[in-house]
Amino acid sequence: MATFDLAGSGAGTVLRFSFRAIGVVDAAVGEAMSRGWAELVQTRLKGLVETGTRLGIDPDEPPTIKPVR
To answer: Cβ(19)–Cβ(33) under 8 Å?
Structure first.
């Protein structure tokens, strides 16, 4: 179960994220899950919120310049 809690803070918003798995989770799998969530939240979600740029599987393409004819 993943939860995202938002709270106002001065001129911004604080995001609190938590994740729980049910059952026995191998230590290596737990570490990989932790790294994956960190990548998704700290890098991809942060980038989307701050710049509007999508990263990951279906990223935004860089702008291209097309000649006008």
So the answer is: yes
The pLDDT score that the predictor gives to residue 37 is 92
**CA-CA distance, 5 to 18, in Å (whole number)?**
9
Alpha-carbon distances, residue 34 vs 22, 40, 48 (angstroms): 15, 10, 20
Tell me the two tokens of residue 12. Answer: 């911004």
Confidence of residue 65 (pLDDT cuts 50, 70, 90): low
CB distance 22 to 33 below 8 Å: no
pLDDT at 56 over 90: no
| Structural Rg of the chain based on CA atoms | 17
